[in-house]
Structures are given as structure tokens and as C-alpha cells.
Amino acid sequence: MQRLLPAPTYLKRLTPRAFAQLAALALSVALLPLSPAQAALAKSAPGSTAPLTLQACIERALDKNFGLAIQRFDAANALESLTIARADYDPALTLTTGRSASQADNADTSLVGTRNDNFSTRLGVSQKIPTGATLSLSQSLNRRGTNNAFALMNPAYTADLSLSVSQPLLRGAGSRVALASIRRAELGTEIASLNTTARILQVVRDTEAAYYSLVYARESLKVRNQSLDLAQRLLAENTTRLGTGVATNLDVLQAEVGVENARRSVLLAEQTVRDAEDRLLNLIGQFEFDEALGEVSLPPTATFSPDYAISYALALKQQPEYRAATESIKQLQIDLSTARRNRLPSLDLNAAGGYNTRDASLNRAYNRLPDGDGYSWQLDLALRFPWGLRAERARYNTALNTLRREETRLRQIEQNLALDVRSAVRSVETNLASVSISRKATELSTRQYELERARFDAGLSTSRRVLEAQDDLESARVAELQAQVNLRTAMAELNRIDGTSLALYNIAQ
């Protein structure tokens, strides 16, 4: 609260007529219409709109921020990629059907124009299993009709039921290789989730900074308006004193220049307020720049001493970029394991067996399948050995180099994280001290201004010195406000780095 200034001593020496002129001038100044700056200040005064809290801004940003919405699409795509990888082990149904006909003369017999009419249908199901093998079960039905009078069965139905398996024994064998794509996709969803968390932390930090900037801009506007009011009061007093012969034209001119300088500062402060409002609305809304933002204020800060060891330990545990890098290394380890296995030649075991029947009746052809005399089986090994396996070894070396590169990059991220934490902790410590210093500086400037104003009222100082003291007071107030904002911005950055912003604002994952 601003202290009351002592009554000007020269008022005691004014004549009744001069005192009436001064009262009339003060009344006319009070009845002047509000300046644009004062109107803007009145518009943002408490009660005009509902207060806008930092928590509400963060909740809106998490709901409407464009960058976060884009990142959520990436997370959704990662889940779809996992579904695609798992779908590789879904059963696959196959159905083929067809019809063919042929007619030809047989020169070795007396048959002329032998015609065959064929119809075939095959239904099958195949399934991959985690060992890398593929199982297939199929059943087929063929119908063959002919105009050959010597055919024993016309039409003839052929049915078969078969089961086959193909199992890699060297390259591509084992559940680690077979399930590599699924495990990699699972890690991909975790990385996408961590990237979303990182984006949330950044949005929270940016929203905090934008909110604090708006508080600073509006409070600075209030300070500028107070300075303008003081400058106008000084001009009014000097004008009155000039009429009574107490002041000179130079005093009035200095006061007029002070008013204009203060008005210019107000105009610049108004622009800063509008820019700060737009920056905040850009983070918490979508094309809502015409929305009137309510009263904002700096939230209280808890008294604490930042600790590097604690913040660094939290960062290693919770920092999304660091955790995402560790998950990426796990993916590369899977790639390396697959590449190591694939250095071997291909050796596949293929086995198949089944029953088949042939009959003139469709029902009998099917019914005789389990216990008919027709059967078949097959067992074979297929070996493929590229000469020298140069490509496979090169792929393995590439995977190994990529893994080592990312492990080195992880160490770099860890070191940069340590640097960021050290810098953020120092920033908080520095701004804590700066707040205390700026508060004392404001108290000193206030007392100096009051003293200079009292000397001016006693005729022992000039308008120039009063304006200089007023400028010093304004600068001190703005500097103290800036220190308060800088402290909260530094704390927001530290909370982003160590990941504690999520718990601070109750953000569920």
C-alpha cells in the first residue's frame, strides 16, 4: 500500500484565492475522462471478469494446445503399430475355388473329343507360433466330370485333409527373434508415451512462463499508471505554483515532459499486456484471441532451498527424454540380437501329412477321410547358405555400431541433464536472493522519493529531482516484480527438468 505523502508546506502560505484556484484545478483533473491505459487497467480490475488461475490455464492448455494434440496422434499411431505387430500371429483363413474345362482328341484311342470338367475348392487356416514356425491346416474338394464312357467314376470326387509345419532351425529360429517385432512395438508405445509426457511438461512450463509474463505485464502497467498519476499531480501543482509565483516556467516544462514520458511508458506497457495475453491464449486456446482474460496473480512460493543431488536423482528417474533414450537402446538391443541370429544360414524343417479319398459320392468321399486307405506325408530340410554371409555380417556390425552410438548419446544426454539441473538450481538460488535484494531496493527508492517530495514541498528541491526519484521508484518496483516473475519461471524450469510438474498440478498419466 502506498504511503500518504505529507501535506505540501507551501499550501500554508497560499492566499485564499490561490487555494481556490488549486482546488478547482484538482477537481478538473479528477473529472477528466480515463486515458486508454487507465481504461485498460479498470477493465482488468477485480470483479470485471472471473479470476484466471494458473491451474485453470494449465488444464486448458492440456485440453486445447495444438502441439500436445499433435503429439497425441503419434502416441495413438504407436498403439496401432503394436496392434499390427501382434496381428502377425492372428490366424489367417484362406479360401480358393475355381472351375476349368478341357477337351481334346486322343489319337491313341477311338475316343474323339474327350471333355473334362473340373471344379475345385480349398479351405485352409494358418497360424504363426512364437517359435518361428508356421502351422497350416487345409481341406480340399475336387469334382471331375468327363464324357469318357470308360471312366469308372463319373463324376469323381476327391477330398483331402492335410496338416503342415515349417520350422526354422537356425536363422529366424527362437521366440526372441520371432517376437522381436512385438517387443519392439511395445517399447515404441512406451517411447511415444514418454514423448507425450515430455510435451506435457514443456506445455506446462511454457504456460507457467506465459502466465507469469502476463502478471508482470499487467502489474507493470499498474506501476506505469501510478507513475503517470504522480507526474500529472506534479504538473498540476507546478502549474498552480506558477500562477502564484512560487514555481517557474522551467518547472512546469519539466513536469510536462515527465507526464509525456510517463504516458509513453504506459502505451508501451499496454502493448506488452496485449502481446502477453495473446501468447497465453495461443497456448491455452485455439483461435480465441478475442477472449477477455480475467485477473491474474503470482501464486505463492514455498520457502525451500533447491538441492542439486535431489533434483538430479529425480531427473534421472522421471525425465521423459532420458527415459525415452533408454527405451530406444532396448529396441536397438533387440535389433542386435536379431542380427546376431541372422548371421546363421537358413535351415528349415518342413513336414506335412494328410488323408485323401476318391469316390463317386460327395458324402462318401468326406466320410471316408479319417479311416480311408489314402494318405500322404512329407519331411524335408531346406538349407540356404549365402557364400561368406557378408551381407548378414554387415547388418550385424551396423546394428552393433548403432547400439554403441545410442549408448554414447545416452551418456551425452545424462551429462547435459546434469548441466541443466545445475543451471536450473543455480537460477532458483540466484533469483531467491534477487527477490530479497529487489524488495529492499524498492523500500529504499520509496523512502528516497518521499524524502525528495517532502523537500520539494518545502521548496528545497526541484521538479527535476522529484521526477528522477519517481523514475527510480518506478524502476525499483518493476525490478522487484521482474525478480518475482524470474523466480517462478526458474522454479518452473527446474520442475520441468526433474519432472515434478506433473505431481505439482495433479496431472494424471
Automatic annotation (TrEMBL):
Pfam families: OEP. It is found in: Cell outer membrane. One of its GO terms (cellular component) is efflux pump complex. This is Transporter. It comes from Cephaloticoccus capnophilus. Residues 1-39 form the signal peptide. InterPro entries: OMP_efflux, TolC-like. One of its GO terms (molecular function) is efflux transmembrane transporter activity. Keywords: Cell outer membrane, Membrane, Signal, Transmembrane, Transmembrane beta strand, Transport. Belongs to the outer membrane factor (OMF) (TC 1.B.17) family.
